[in-house]
Amino acid sequence: MVLENCRAAYRIEDGVFWPTASTEEADALIQANAALSASQFGGAKTHLKNAASKLTEGDYPASVRESISAAESVARVLEPTGELSKALSGLEQRIALHPALKKAFLSLYGYTSDEKGIRHALLSEAEADVDEADAIFFIGACASFLTYLISKSHTRR
Q1: What is the dihedral of CA 7, 24, 1, 17, to 10 degrees?
Q2: How far apart are the first and last CA of the chain?
Q3: Which pLDDT does position 55 carry in this prediction?
Q4: DSSP for residue 127
Q5: How far apart are CA 136 and CA 156, in angstroms?
Q6: DSSP 45-80
C-alpha cells in the first residue's frame, strides 16, 4: 500500500518486487500471479517471478525471455501438444481463441526468437537491442495473455 500511495514503480506481491509503469500494469501482474496459483502452473509462476526479478535487475533481455516463457508455459499446460504453435492451434479450437490473437502472440514469440540475445545467442552484437520499455511491455502483455488463456479455459470446460 505504501508503494502504491507513493506512486512507486514497484509493487510487492507474494514476496516479489513487481515492476510497473502504471496501476493497470501492476494489477495485471498481480492478477497473473494469482491465476498461476494452481500447481500445474508452477513453471509459469516461476518464469513470471524471474521476469520481474530480471527487470528489477536491469537485465531486460532475460526479463523478456522469462515473460514469454511464462505465457508459453501456460499455453502448453492447457494444451500439451509439444510446441507453442500447436498448443495455440488447439486452444484456438477448444476455447475459441480468436485467430488474430493467436497470430499476435505468435508474432511476439517470433520477435523473441529473432532478436539476438533474448532466446538465442548473441553473435556479433555486444548485447541485445532490448530496453526497459520493451521489458515492461513484455511482462505486462505476457501476464495479461496468460491470465486471458487461463480464464478462457475455465469458462469453456
Answers
A1: -90
A2: 36
A3: 87
A4: S
A5: 30
A6: HHHHHHHHHHHHHT-HHHHHHHHHHHHHHHHHHHS-
Q: Could you tell me the pTM of the whole model?
A: 0.81
Contact yes or no for 29/12 (Cβ under 8 A): no
CB atoms within 10 A of CB 95: 19
- 147 Cβ partners below 8 Å, 6+ apart? 28, 31, 32, 35
CA distances to 109, 139, 142 from 56, rounded to whole Å, are 22, 12, 17
Classify the C-alpha dihedral 22-23-25-26 as positive or negative: positive
pLDDT confidence bin for 5, thresholds 50/70/90: low
The CATH code of the domain at 2-155 is 1.20.120
Can you tell me the distance from the alpha carbon of 34 to that of 45, in angstroms, rounded to the nearest whole number? 9
pLDDT in tens, 33-70: 889 998 999 999 999 999 988 988 889 999 999 999 99
Q: Domain spans of the chain?
A: 2-155
Which residue in the block uniquely carries the three cell numbers 499455453? 75
In contact, 29 and 11? CB cutoff 8 Å: yes
Task: Quickly tell me which residue has 508474432 as its cell.
Answer: 107
